[in-house]
Amino acid sequence: MNTPTREASSPDGALEAFYEREHARARQLVLLGASLQLLESVTKLPREQLEQLRKALSGQHAAAPKEPYATDWFTRWQPNIHASLFITFYQRFVDAAGKEDIDALIRAYRLYLEQIQLIGLAEILSITRAWRLIQVLDSGNLSLTACKRCGGQFIAQTTDLWADYRCGLCAPPNNSALFLNVEPA
Amino acid sequence: MQTTTEEMNRLHDEIREANLTYLTVAQHMIRADRVDAQVRLGLGSVVVDIIDQLTPAQLVRIASSSMLVCRFRCDDRLIWSLLSDHGNNDVTAGLHASVLMANQPLATS
Q1: Which residues of A touch B109 (CB under 8 A)?
Q2: Alpha helices in chain A (DSSP H)
């Protein structure tokens, strides 16, 4: 992340530009439905300002319910496919920009939303969960495994050693189509 | 096999059209958002820079070749069968194709 003082010759101008960028980034995140918790971790804006922004842009109040931290959500059948699609996009953006940052999160999440809407599914992965997923993968509690049949990258428990891993799409559970949340027409 | 001059000319016209469309779309995408374009096009940064800097004249000259300048990003049979199969589970097939397409690496240059 850029530091406020390194950029321009005039420190005041640089600071102003820095906060402008932070503000623009916070706006994008709020519009994508980011929680206060996410906003606080990835921008340098004071909490009151972030609360105001959320209220103004999304009509949500500060005390929005916290999403559970549990990592097993990512390993359930339907969430796993959505989260795997997101993280694969995220990797492409990291490849393209050459760095892991909030920009890659925002871009990958947008592309995820676009793709899911095109297919006609409901967007069950929130941006807060997407951000959480990146942290969980960094920590090593979950990892990416290639499906031995289709070659796609999917999120799996690190503790499981998958010599013959089949993804949820190659080997779906019975009646899995019934569990797909399709966007109401 | 014999190809008449007329048929050959038509083929060249069609290839030029396809090349022009591809290069124009790519250039628009790159100028609108470079990183986003790289991921959607599947191109490496060197080629993206070159396309970005093409003048209209250069663009037309490149397009007027007898070869296509772009090709399919995936030569994976599974992706093709998922994309083309209109079986009874379009949604699952679409989702699967998306995951596999997203996993195609960007070109190295």
Answers
A1: none
A2: 11-31, 36-42, 47-58, 77-97, 102-119, 127-139
> Does the interface predicted TM-score (ipTM) exceed 0.90?
no
Q: What pLDDT sits at residue A63?
A: 52
How close, in Å, is residue B85 to chain A by CA atoms? Answer: 14
**pTM of model > 0.90:** no
Decide: A168 and A80 in contact? Cβ < 8 Å: yes
**Beta-carbon contacts of residue A123 (< 8 Å; ≥ 6 apart):** A82, A112, A113, A116, A117
Alpha-carbon distance B13 to B97, whole Å?
32
Per the DSSP assignment, residues forming a β-bridge with A142 are A157
Q: Tell me the average pLDDT across B30-41.
A: 97
What angle is formed at CA A81 by the lines to CA A80 and CA A84, rounded to 5 degrees?
80
Q: Alpha-carbon distance A51 to A30, whole Å?
A: 10
Residue A124 Cα, gap to closest chain B Cα (Å): 13
> Taking Cα atoms as reference points, which of A159, A128, A129, A127 lies closest to residue A143?
A159
Q: How far is CA A63 from its chain centroid? A: 21
